[in-house]
């Protein structure tokens, strides 16, 4: 097997995997499961207003704590909440006074499409089919406790519009007070310039005669996202931390099958999609219980929830306590998220070759800081990787050059022993031994490189820095296909040239198939992001140069 075939094999495997994932999504959509009693996933109060059953259950170790929507909360649910608008240099956010939920987040620095739709990406929204919100609240230790401000209550707020402007910090306080005036919860969101991390404080004041015991919960709730590119299927779903720097994916079908309940210390929970995510980061020394659940199961658009519940908190009479958390909503910029919690950068999903992909990304980012252009960074990274494997590639190309040199003699042996397969194989082995040719010499060195090629593929696909990154001329979006198909055509021509440098296949049928592959892959790569195609073009051009030089040296010797 020669170099070109191995590279084609690696590309073919990537394409096959993408097509398989797309086919699976089409023929096996996430199942819809009804409740065991056949009822809906919502409860209805006396006035007929639906109250979604999306409150978390308490940790299994503390069954005596029974969080439920209190009577005052249900009564207030009858009213329509107001929307609070918050604008910073990176966010355009809407918070609902019902629950203090974050209901809409637009990322101002990330347009939907720099060429077709300059409006900002809306990562969070509460519209049907695009549902993705963030919620928090308190669960009380007493089932009949009126001090249970979950995410169904209505907060009061002094104004409906906030802007960060030139401030170093913007605080947005929302306050709820119990009917008897003896219990107050103030939820304070904190925004910072140029930062996708949002601080959140829950100030709990108990002026009653008895201690208050309960839990703080934080959760992300969303529906599925339709994959728009059949060739580039990426993971959308929940991801949670697991142990030291570890992580675990919990996809939507898994959530439908069973609810998660797991104890952990600190860590993080997230809902991720291609390039973007929402993540809750509780205090890292806090005992937490991670959970998942699904509501609206019997509808066409189930709501998937991942959340975390704190250990029991107590607020004594006349006491105020403050619980602090961090919420990240935005692009998966590794330079920011790896500082928030151990292992949070794992949400940049490089797959099973992450151990190779992360160093590749690190090197790519270092090059970017020097050249300040992601396109040129890809080119220089490709050159560096090609240099690292120069000797391995040289050994492969030398073996193929020797094979190319004796190809006429091999064809003569094939004709001479066309009716004697055993004799032909024996004669070919003797020729290889005489000419000191290892038939596998062109295969083994390239096998070592395939994991690096695949890792680089995922780095270029998953890194949000590539999204709509400008290169040069007409290539102003490295995450989108080349609009004029110039790069795919160059790649197809380079594959054809490299085939001509390789030994011709002995089998005529195989030779015809190999001649068709440049055309086939040109069509495939026409739909790939131009950043990925740029890598393949540069790699092919470097390979052609090296292989041509080695082949000419051996044939002229």
What is the secondary structure topology, with strand pairs?
Elements: H1 3-27, E1 42-44, E2 50-52, H2 71-77, E3 83-87, E4 91-96, E5 102-113, E6 117-124, E7 132-140, E8 161-163, E9 170-177, E10 183-191, E11 197-206, E12 212-222, E13 237-241, E14 247-250, H3 252-257, E15 261-265, E16 269-273, E17 276-281, E18 287-295, E19 303-310, E20 313-315, E21 319-331, H4 334-337, H5 354-371, H6 374-388, H7 390-405, H8 407-416, H9 421-435, H10 444-462, H11 486-501, H12 508-525, H13 530-555
Parallel strand pairs: 3-8
Antiparallel strand pairs: 1-2, 3-4, 4-5, 5-6, 7-12, 9-10, 10-11, 11-21, 12-19, 12-20, 13-14, 13-16, 15-18, 16-17, 17-21, 18-19
Task: Describe, in plain words, how this protein is organized in 3D.
The protein is an alpha+beta fold and 557 residues long. The chain has two domains: 3-16 and 358-555, no CATH class; 31-349, Distorted Sandwich (Beta-galactosidase, Chain A, domain 5), CATH 2.70.98. 35% of the residues lie in helices and 26% in strands. It has 13 helices and 21 strands. The strands form four sheets. Strands 9-10-11-21-17-16-13-14 form an eight-stranded antiparallel β-sheet. Strands 7, 12, 15, 18, 19 and 20 form a six-stranded antiparallel β-sheet that branches. It has a five-stranded mixed β-sheet with strand order 6-5-4-3-8, with no helix packed on it. The longest helix is centred in the C-terminal third of the chain and has 26 residues, at 530-555. It is elongated and about 105 Å long.
